[in-house]
UniProtKB/TrEMBL annotation:
Molecular function terms, GO-annotated: oxidoreductase activity
Database matches in PANTHER family: ALCOHOL DEHYDROGENASE-LIKE C-TERMINAL DOMAIN-CONTAINING PROTEIN, YALI0E05731P
Protein name: NAD(P)-dependent dehydrogenase, short-chain alcohol dehydrogenase family
TM annotation in the entry: none
Signal peptide residue numbers: none
Keywords: Oxidoreductase
Domain of life (superkingdom): Bacteria
Lineage: Bacteria, Bacillati, Actinomycetota, Actinomycetes, Micromonosporales
Length: 250
């Protein structure tokens, strides 16, 4: 029986994946807001200390979006805090537990990978204090998660890291938006998006049979070349150093 930790595992794609894995006999720790506020460095760090000392897989599916810039109690922009910094903290904090897995351990990061060139890292304003938009924050998060995968794989040979973009899924995320965008996005997801159950199926397959490569990027199952500029190792090192420093100062 595998032990799988799913951040954001109480609803949406994470919830559907948790249900599928439990049905298959896995022990699943589905983390939601009742377990910890993942926008908080302190709470995320405390959560890591409460998790098992051996796990087989870590799924990063938690995210939050807002059309307005929201600042956490620790002074961080909300989208960045939960979508980038918490994922970095969880992966690094649970690395020793993953290393103890009996079979091939895997980190599965549900992100916006796939060569979307609109996004970039705003090095001089990571918290987007100036000119915040939901699109800018989301795209920065997508680029940052690509780099998190690169940085992790550069220092790890046994644990597999998979970046997965499920594309449009009718996951209910539109409920975080304000009207009229909530209705428009919800209608588009219902019409053109896949269901959370269908989106979870290939994810379960990746956890059961992880890729051989240290880092894999997939866009709804189709490989994305790691030769793209979005996966630059030097930039990945830079981001890792920034996040390490940021977490220490919060």
């Amino acid at each position: 029986m595998r032990t799988v930790v799913i951040a954001g595992g109480t609803r949406g794609i994470g919830g559907a994946l948790a249900a599928r894995l439990r049905q298959a006999g896995d022990q699943v720790l589905a983390l939601g807001s009742e377990d910890a506020d993942l926008t908080s460095v302190r709470q995320t760090t405390e959560l890591i200390s409460r998790l098992p000392d051996r796990i087989d897989a870590l799924v990063l599916a938690a995210g939050r979006f807002d059309q307005r810039r929201v600042v956490t109690a620790e002074g961080l922009e909300q989208t960045f805090a939960i979508g980038v910094l918490s994922r970095y903290l969880l992966t690094e904090g649970l690395r020793p537990a993953l290393a103890k897995a009996a079979s091939t351990p895997v980190v599965l990061n549900l992100s916006g990978t796939g060569g979307i060139r609109a996004g970039r890292i705003h090095w001089d304003d990571l918290q987007l204090r100036h000119g915040y938009t939901m699109f800018k924050a989301t795209m920065q998060g997508a680029r940052a998660n690509d780099l998190l995968g690169v940085a992790f794989a550069a220092r790890e040979s046994r644990i597999r890291y998979v970046l997965y973009n499920p594309l449009l899924v009718n996951s209910g995320m539109h409920r975080q938006l304000r009207q009229p965008l909530r209705t428009l996005v919800g209608a588009a997801a219902a019409t053109f998006g896949t269901t959370v159950d269908n989106a979870a199926e290939p994810l379960a397959g990746l956890l059961a049979d992880p890729p051989d490569a240290p880092l894999t990027a997939l866009r709804r199952g189709k490989p994305v070349s790691l030769d793209r500029s979005e996966f630059d190792p030097g930039t990945a090192e830079r981001l890792e150093a920034v996040l390490t420093d940021l977490a220490a100062r919060v």
